[in-house]
Amino acid sequence: MKTSYETDNRFANRGYAPEGATAAYSARWIDMETWGDIVPDRQGMAYDDAKERDVLASIMNDRKFWKPLPTFAKAFNETHGEEANGVLQLGDRVANYHMWRSDPGTKGYIYVEAWLNA
Hints:
mainly beta, Beta-Lactamase, eight-stranded antiparallel β-sheet
């Protein structure tokens, strides 16, 4: 995948996006308990085709899954604390996401990955 260097890409593609994903988004948001405060320079996208990047961005902007945040559940491992998984759909295109809290309930960070399925 090509990587967009217009934003901070240290957070792009941490491994949840499957190999066949056509675009992926990763970020570190500030955890405001019921919503995620998106920090522009702490997010990045990886993609093969700018059109696929734009589709993923459209789905995320249309569904606004950062406000309110989805319901978090106890994570399968202690490093994540709490996590949430879900599906975002716009028309016939589907994106998945995985997010986890760094320190639940302390207004720490939420790490987010979303990817567009082929």
